[in-house]
Specification:
The chain is α/β, with parallel strands linked by helices. The protein has 2 domains: 3-160, 3-Layer(aba) Sandwich (Rossmann fold), CATH 3.40.50; 177-353, Rossmann fold. It is 41% helix and 16% strand. The chain contains 14 helices and 12 strands. The strands form 2 sheets. The chain has a 6-stranded parallel β-sheet with strand order 3-2-1-4-5-6. A 6-stranded parallel β-sheet has the order 9-8-7-10-11-12, with helices on both faces. Strand 8, helix 9 and strand 9 form a beta-alpha-beta unit.
């Protein structure tokens, strides 16, 4: 370890240091990095911290991070020139230290991150590494030193190794006032007399994490039968799932898939009585907002990726042992399908009534 690396690892950030915090994963992962980011910003006030993340993530955390930059990631042919210009601008700022807040376990991701660091060219790079990952940085912090395998705690373990104490281990978010006002108006116009209301999110990036759409439909019917309002949210990829749920239940469900901005989703979630969703970014958003949250997870993912937040959170999984499927989208994922709608329904009612 160089003298500069040892100095940074001991928390010796100098006055006037320019620091870069890199989180190019999904916005759920960025939310789990917030306690580490906010602790670094609060403790190392002599450092000008810049956070670089994907463009969609910026809308979620723009009120929680001072200097926030967007980087198109992963790169593609269409945005190649934009990404190159973004990297060039970051390089010109001459960062003293870059801290990466995620472990890279795949070869493609490792090569991509190596290219990003080479393009930005910080004087020193620091990041997490694990037995399944790659040693990509000047200073590699071994995740095996952490007492907890959770993403929040791993990020906090990394900054503690730099001499930075954490101020919180709970991610929190708040929607913009204008988004809340829009959703208040929506409730008055579309959901009169249907309070409390439950939001369902039937999607997510990993198909292996999806609770079956027919289970969501069965849950929606039960909730509607209890006199509860039900909204289905999602992006473009969730449109078909939302339509199937609505068609299965009828007029008792409001379909908002691909109709709301992320700030509007946050405004909506801040007003409703409960949320149900798969392991996904919106589930972490709901938890960080303090919305009573019922999260549906694969059994093997609960220790590392379960949501954290200031409100009531129930993480449900079936008792079925996971058969290693490498998170592929093919076949039927028994561990998710075996999670009964009745069990989720009871958890939602408990969350609302407690």
């Amino acid at each position: 370890m160089t003298e500069q690396a040892a100095d940074a690892a001991g928390g010796g950030f100098r006055a006037g240091t320019r620091g870069l915090l890199v989180q190019l994963a999904g916005f759920g992962d960025l939310i789990m990095a917030l306690p580490a980011i906010e602790s670094l910003q609060a403790y190392s006030t002599n450092v000008h911290w810049t956070v670089v993340t994907r463009p969609p993530n910026c809308e979620v955390v723009r009120d929680r991070v001072g200097d926030l930059r967007a980087l198109n990631w992963p790169p593609d042919v269409v945005h190649a020139s934009i990404t190159a210009r973004q990297l060039l601008r970051l390089r010109r700022e001459r960062f003293d230290v870059a801290i990466h807040l995620y472990d890279i376990s795949g070869l493609k991701g490792a090569l991509g991150l190596k290219a990003v660091l080479a393009a930005i060219n910080p004087r020193l790079s620091i990041g997490r590494t694990s037995s399944r990952g790659f040693r990509l940085f000047d200073v590699n912090w071994d995740e095996g030193q952490s007492n907890s395998p959770h993403e929040v705690d791993l990020n906090l373990g990394l900054i503690r190794s730099l001499g930075v104490p954490h101020i919180t281990d709970t991610p929190t978010l708040a929607p913009e006032h204008s988004a809340v006002q829009r959703m208040v108006k929506f409730f008055k116009e579309r959901l009169v007399g249907t309070t409390p209301c439950v939001v369902l999110f039937p999607g997510g990036t990993q198909l292996a994490n999806h609770w079956p759409v027919e289970h969501y439909a069965a849950l929606a019917r039960k909730l509607h039968g209890e006199g509860l309002g039900v909204c289905v949210i999602g992006g473009r990829t969730e449109v078909n799932a939302a339509r199937r749920i609505v068609e299965n239940v009828g007029n008792g469900v409001c379909n908002l898939a691909d109709r709301l901005s992320m700030q509007d989703v946050m405004g909506l979630l801040s007003l409703v009585s409960a949320y149900v969703g798969n392991a996904s970014g919106p589930t972490h958003v709901a938890a960080a907002l303090g919305t009573p949250c019922v999260a549906l997870y694969r059994r093997n993912d609960t220790k590392r990726f379960s949501p954290r937040g200031p409100g009531r959170i129930r993480v449900l999984h079936s008792a079925v042992e996971c058969i290693p499927c490498e998170r592929t989208g093919s076949g039927r994922h028994t561990c998710m399908a075996a999670l009964a709608p009745e069990m989720v329904f009871e958890a939602v009612l408990e969350s609302i009534r407690s």
